[in-house]
């Protein structure tokens, strides 16, 4: 248990910082989860882009608050942007049957 005045204050501030960091970690995690689910269900590219923007926003804020490292934020943003760009590049396939 904290004995000195400064150690008691350190415990209080650590508790506050922990809840603040957990908030941003959860925000990033939820955005990643929704984007992954949308990618698996092959939703519309416009919807994917709006979810990507939300993820990028959460990652940037978490990196700004130093909850996660800025390189990790950039890496995650890049990976999901590449996956969505790949979906945009490939046109929707038509049926395999040939019309003769």
From TrEMBL:
GO MF annotation list: small ribosomal subunit rRNA binding; structural constituent of ribosome
Pfam family, one: Ribosomal_S20p
Coiled-coil blocks: 38-72
Highest rank taxon of the organism: Bacteria
Keywords noted in UniProt: Coiled coil, Ribonucleoprotein, Ribosomal protein, RNA-binding, rRNA-binding
Cellular-component GO terms for this entry: cytosol; small ribosomal subunit
The UniProt record lists the keyword Coiled coil: yes
GO BP: any one term: translation
Keyword Coiled coil: yes
Family: Belongs to the bacterial ribosomal protein bS20 family.
Function: Binds directly to 16S ribosomal RNA.
Protein name: Small ribosomal subunit protein bS20
Origin species: candidate division WWE3 bacterium
Gene, per the UniProt record: rpsT
